[in-house]
Specification:
The protein is of the alpha/beta class. The protein contains twelve helices and 17 strands. β12 and β13 form a beta hairpin. It starts with 6 loop residues before the first helix and ends with a helix. Bound molecules: pyridoxal-5'-phosphate. Pyridoxal-5'-phosphate binds next to α4 and α5.
Length: 370
C-alpha cells in the first residue's frame, strides 16, 4: 500500500544526517533552548527572509503566542476560516478570544476576502471587536493576502498568516509568512517542514515583538526566574531543533519534488479535476486535493490499486461536535466550506514517493478518469 503521507520515509531518506544531528544534541548535555534551537531559529528566519523567528512546542501554540503578542485575548474576536485544521480555531479560544468563521473561495479553499470585508464592516451582533484576522494558506497555497490585509488594516485588525501547510509557498513574489505582523508554522512530522515529534515557530520582522514572543513561550521570562509577562511553557527542544536544521536544508528540494509529483498527477487527470493554482502565487502541495462528488467510489478504487488517500477535512470546524451551534459565522454561514468537506480527497503526497510509485498512481488515475 502506498500511504497518503509517510514521515518514516522522510526519516530514512536523511537517516545518516539526522542520526548525526541527534547524537550531537544528545552529547551536548543541554536539551531545552540551547545552541541548536538558536541556530534553527536564525537559519529559519534567513530561509524565510524575515528578521526573527521564535521556536515553540507546536503550531497551535505558535498561533496562541502570536495572538497574545499582538494583544489579542479576552474581549476580542478573531476572524478565520472553518475549512482548516481545527487547531486554528482552538488556538483562538485558548487565548480567551472568540472566533468568527469566514467562508472559503471554493476554487482555492482559502478565506473569501469579500466575505471578510462584509463581516469587518458589519460584524455579527454581540461579538466583541475583531482584533485580528488569521488567513490559512491551506494545502500549500497562499490565501489571497492583498485584499485580506487591506480590509483588515482599514478596520484596525492585525493579520497573522497561518503558514502551517505552506512552508515555502509564495504570493506575488514573496514567501508566505513575510506579509503580516506575525506568521505561524507547525513543524508536525507530516508538514512540508516536519520534525520527528512536535514543533512550531513564529516569524516576525519586528525585533521587539520577537523578544515578547520569546518571553511568552517561557513563563514570561526576559531573564531567568523573573516573569515580566504572564507566559506559558511552549518550548522547542534541542533534539527537534537539531533534526529540523537537517530538514530545513532540504526543504526547497522537497518542495520542488512535491511540485514535480503534482505536475505528474496533473498530466494524468482531465483539466477540470486539476487543483486550481492562484495566479501570481506558487503552490508547494502540502496536499494534492481532488474535488469529487463520488469520493467514496474513487477512494475505494484507489485502495483496490494499493493507493492510500486522505480527507482533509471530513467536517468543517463549525460542524464538529465541540463547536456546533456556538461559533459565530459570516453571512454565508460557511456553506462552501461544508460542501467542500463532502468532496475533497487528498492523493499520496510526500517527497520520498518513488518515480515508479508516482507512475502507478498516474496510471490508476488515467483508468479512473479516462
Ligand atoms: C497542523 C496545523 C496546525 C496545528 O499545528 P500543530 O503543530 O498540530 O499544533 C495549525 N494550523 C494548520 C492550518 C495546520 O495545518
Amino acid at each position: 500500500m502506498i500511504p497518503q503521507a509517510n514521515p518514516g520515509a522522510g526519516y530514512r531518506a536523511l537517516k545518516a544526517e539526522i542520526d548525526d544531528a541527534v547524537a550531537r544534541a544528545l552529547n551536548s548535555g543541554w536539551y531545552i533552548l540551547g545552541a541548536e534551537g538558536r541556530a534553527f531559529e536564525s537559519e529559519f528566519a534567513a530561509w524565510l527572509g524575515t528578521n526573527r523567528a521564535v521556536g515553540c512546542a507546536n503550531g497551535t501554540d505558535a498561533l496562541v503566542l502570536a495572538l497574545r503578542a499582538l494583544g489579542v485575548g479576552p474581549g476580542s474576536a478573531v476572524a478565520t476560516v472553518s475549512h482548516t485544521a481545527v487547531a486554528t480555531v482552538a488556538a483562538i479560544e485558548m487565548t480567551g478570544a472568540i472566533p468568527v468563521l469566514i467562508d472559503i473561495d471554493p476554487s482555492h479553499y482559502t478565506m473569501d476576502p469579500s466575505e471578510l470585508a462584509a463581516v469587518l464592516a458589519d460584524p455579527p451582533a454581540g461579538l466583541p471587536p475583531i482584533a485580528a484576522v488569521i488567513p490559512v494558506h491551506l494545502y500549500g497555497q497562499a490565501a489571497d493576502l492583498a485584499p485580506i490585509i487591506a480590509t483588515a488594516k482599514a478596520h484596525g485588525a492585525a493579520v497573522i498568516e497561518d503558514c502551517s501547510q505552506a512552508h515555502g509557498a509564495t504570493y506575488r513574489g514573496g514567501k508566505v509568512g513575510t506579509f503580516t505582523e506575525a506568521a505561524t508554522f507547525s513543524l508536525y512530522p507530516t508538514k512540508n517542514l516536519g520534525a520527528l515529534g512536535d514543533g512550531g515557530i513564529v516569524a516576525t520582522s519586528d525585533p521587539a515583538r520577537a523578544d515578547l514572543l520569546a518571553a511568552l513561550r517561557q513563563y514570561g521570562w526576559r531573564s531567568h526566574y523573573i516573569s515580566t509577562e504572564a507566559g506559558i511553557n511552549s518550548r522547542l527542544d534541542e533534539l527537534q531543533a537539531a533534526i529540523l536544521r537537517v530538514k530545513l536544508a532540504h526543504l526547497d528540494g522537497h518542495n520542488a519534488r512535491r511540485q514535480a509529483i503534482a505536475a505528474g498527477y496533473d498530466a494524468a487527470l482531465p483539466a477540470a479535476l486539476r487543483p486550481a493554482r492562484r495566479a501570481g502565487a506558487s503552490h508547494v502541495f502540502h496536499q494534492y486535493v481532488l474535488r469529487l462528488p463520488d469520493r467514496t467510489r474513487v477512494q475505494a478504487a484507489l485502495r483496490e490499486a494499493g493507493i492510500g488517500s486522505g480527507i482533509h477535512y471530513p467536517q468543517p470546524v463549525h460542524l464538529q461536535p465541540a463547536y456546533l451551534g456556538r461559533v459565530a459565522m459570516g453571512p454565508a454561514a460557511c456553506a462552501a466550506s461544508a460542501k467542500a468537506c463532502t468532496e475533497v480527497l487528498s492523493l499520496p503526497m510526500y517527497p520520498e514517493l518513488t518515480d515508479s510509485e508516482v507512475s502507478h498512481i498516474c496510471a490508476t488515475l488515467r483508468t479512473l478518469f479516462p
